[in-house]
Design goal:
Structural class: alpha/beta
Oligomer: single chain
Largest sheet: 6 strands, mixed
Number of helices: 13
Number of domains: 2
Strand content: 5-15%
CATH class of the largest domain: Alpha Beta
Radius of gyration: 23 Å
CATH superfamily of the largest domain: SGNH hydrolase
CATH topology of the largest domain: Rossmann fold
Order of helices and strands: EHEEEEHEHEHEHEHHHHHEHHEH
């Protein structure tokens, strides 16, 4: 077996932890660090070098293991001229592990859950499990798109004992049809890809992960998850612990909301719309075939935010969702501009705070009861 020679960029705790997870046949030549105080010293029994040592090219990979990974990768590629194919960024393995944390939590409750919600961050904050009349689990997460909504639901239904499940709530936004998480450049798809086996259009991220897997064992991911799991679990436990608000300064809040909304709704990706339309259509058909009652819905958005939604996006969204919901006999509960929500119900531009989430969950309960009548 050919020996693979690597340097580890980052002579700190993260780099030290990584040393125990290199695959057989990998030789660590030493550490690289940007701190001059560490040069010509030893760390974990290995020499520490300045970045310039990498110019000699006598190695196969440089493995970046540092909280400053974005800056370091740019330094390596743009300043030192190192080929991107020779750079392994351990952070690309796990943008975060929030989905894994949620899936573990669901596993403990699978047999009791009667209602599952999914969607983007608006749904994450809008549907409060403890306020729902039925035992509910909320898989919604910041950054999530329709592709992964569908992947999550299929994975859960086909791999968990969901005997009591009756309802599936699919949260949408006006830009849902234009949004594709895998086309973002921050490797967030790794949140789902490891467990669902799907990178969607994130081939560049998959290439980074494959490169890392050549030298780092799969046990490394598990070790990171176990170290950080309290952080991930705690995040969801604290989501509604407090009535936080960013709307105290109305002038500043209005400008921020208008800016965020205009950025989110400038998308114009016809191919993505076509794909997401098909994903939504197939998902509703799949849920119907399993005998589940489904509800499409939107969460309220602050008027400052909703005022910036372009008419083109709005018209396209409504005209696309209506026939799909009719085809599958799935109601669409559109609450985006609900007059029942005031400043006191919002955390920021389009996310409800604790009070808003409680009110929305109460209204959601009433809507589900009407569906069941």
């Amino acid at each position: 077996m050919k020996t693979v020679a690597v340097y580890v960029f980052g002579a700190g705790g993260a780099g030290e932890h990584l040393l125990g997870f290199f695959r057989q046949g990998v030789q660590v030549l030493g550490f690289i660090d940007n701190s001059p105080a560490k040069w010509s010293t030893e760390f974990c029994g290995l020499p520490v070098f300045p970045p310039d040592v990498l110019k000699n090219g006598n190695y196969d990979y440089v493995v970046v293991c540092s909280a400053y990974h974005p800056q370091i990768v740019l330094q390596l590629v743009e300043e030192l001229g190192i080929l991107e194919q020779k750079v392994i960024n351990t952070h690309a393995l796990f943008h975060d592990m929030y989905f894994r944390s949620r899936l573990d939590a669901f596993t403990l409750r699978a047999r009791e859950v009667q209602c599952i919600a999914t969607g983007i961050s608006y749904v994450m904050l809008g549907v409060i499990e403890s306020q729902m009349a039925l035992p509910t689990f909320n898989f919604a997460m910041n950054g999530q798109d329709l592709y992964y909504d569908a992947k999550i639901l299929r994975h859960v239904l086909e791999n968990h004992p969901v005997d009591k499940l009756e309802y599936v709530l699919v949260g949408l936004t006006r830009y849902s049809l234009h949004y594709d998480l895998s086309r973002r450049k921050n490797d967030m798809v790794t949140r789902y890809a490891h467990l669902l086996g799907a990178y969607h259009h994130g081939q560049a991220t998959k290439d980074k992960v494959d490169r890392a897997n050549r030298v780092i064992s799969s046990a490394y991911m598990d070790s990171i998850y176990q170290r950080q799991r309290p952080v991930y679990d705690g995040y969801f436990k604290e989501l509604h612990n407090g009535n936080f608000s960013q709307l105290k300064n109305k002038t500043e809040a209005q400008k921020k909301m208008e800016l965020i909304s205009s950025r989110e709704h400038v998308k114009y990706y016809p191919a993505t719309v076509k794909e997401n339309t098909l994903i939504l259509d197939e998902l509703l058909g799949y849920l119907k075939a399993r005998g589940l009652r489904t509800l499409l819905f939107t969460v309220p958005g602050h008027p400052y935010y909703t005022a910036q939604v372009p008419q083109r996006i709005e018209k396209e969204f409504l005209e696309t969702v209506a026939p799909i919901s009719h085809k599958h006999n799935v109601p669409f509960w559109d609450m985006l501009r609900s007059p029942d929500f005031t400043d006191a119900h919002y955390y920021d531009d389009s996310h409800l705070n604790e009070a808003g989430g409680c009110l929305f969950s109460k209204m959601l309960n009433d809507t589900l009861r009407k569906l069941n009548a």
